[in-house]
Amino acid sequence: MKKLISIAAAGILLLGLAGCAAGGDTPAAGGSSEPKAVGDLVVGFAQVGAESGWRTANTKDVQAAFADAGIELKFSDAQQKQENQIKAIRSYIQQGVDYIAFSPVVETGWDAVLNEAKAAGIPVILTDRAVDSKDTSLYVSFLGSDFIEEGKKAGEWAVEEFADADSVKVVQLEGTTGAAPAIDRAEGFAEVVGKDDKFETVASQTGDFTRAGGLQVMEALLKSNPDIDLVYAHNDDMGLGAIEAIEAAGLVPGVDIKIVTVDAVKDGMQALADGKINFIVECSPLLGAQLVDIVKTLNDGGTVEPRIVTEETTFTKEQAIEALPDRQY
Ligand code: GZL
């Protein structure tokens, strides 16, 4: 009898160990040192939301690039909520994906979940927006625009456009509060126009990167600021909302009130061609191919630049008219 009990006990012990090894204790598949076949790679992508034409184009481009590469892309839309992005990243960690890419909706509050990804051995790639983590070991690379430069380009255009004006009253439609593009585009613009005290920012408020937000904020600001000369909108969508508000107030956008925006999505470029927006600073959403290249390079054991800045330009009315027919987004 004693022998039977000891054999049973040994069996239970072995089963227990096996169960443990097959369960949560196995190292995540992510970031394994040996290159995997590209077709076996799985990437988790936690997108901000679908708040703007830029975001929709970015999602489409990233999904198409991974489909073309034959790499499985798990996708989530956080509806512009940080807690949803964190939940999505945690779920990708649980699933043991090979890489995680995401565009942080705001700069702060990521260290905990990024440390969880690091502990699981899953490399993280920042796509589009940055985080303010001091620990740069928490992500492999930040692929996206230089938002300060974009703000400066908008400011340089404004200085030239209003060279002969004695005073310029500016309304700024800010992007999502705490988002890297909102913070940096404001900083770049202020750095340039701040050199000339004829520029006065009479109001600056967030429209959350949405057309509805731009409309709502501009309606209110038009009531409280009768003599606005310039609207600086952190993206086309808020600029398009501002156009609706300006027209509803019986004024002519692009003439009575000049408008400069950032992105250069199709609807914004059409408004530029129509003279309702006066200048657009491009911010390219087409990051998919570069993101696939980063994943492939890492999978092959290569290294990638910690900061990859996307190429982009600016558009005047004439340039928009010329570019529109071939515009991808
Ligand atoms: C910029 C991107 C911004 C766009 C907006 O890279 O994060 O978010 O400018 C979008 O249109 O909502």
Essential attributes:
329 residues; alpha/beta; Rossmann fold; 2 domains; 6-stranded mixed beta sheet; 12 strands; 44% helix; binds beta-D-galactofuranose
Numbering strands along the chain, what is their spatial order in the largest sheet? 2-1-3-4-5-11
CATH architecture assignment name of the largest domain:
3-Layer(aba) Sandwich
Structure classification: alpha/beta
The CATH homologous superfamily of the largest domain is termed: Response regulator
Indicate how many domains the architecture comprises. Answer: 2
The CATH topology assignment of the largest domain is Rossmann fold
Arithmetic mean pLDDT: 92
Overall, the morphology is elongated
> What is the rounded distance between the termini?
77 Å
Q: How many strands?
A: 12
CATH level 1 class label of the largest domain: Alpha Beta
SSE order, as H and E?
HEHEHEHEEHEHEHEHEHEHEEH
Number of helices: 11
- Using only C-alpha atoms, the radius of gyration works out to 24 Å
**Bound ions, cofactors and other small molecules, one mention each:** beta-D-galactofuranose
Query: pLDDT below 50 for ≥5 consecutive residues: which ranges?
Result: 8-31
> The biggest beta sheet, please?
6 strands, parallel
Oligomer state equals single chain
Helix fraction?
A: 40-55%
Please indicate the percent range of residues in DSSP E strands (runs of 2 or more).
15-25%
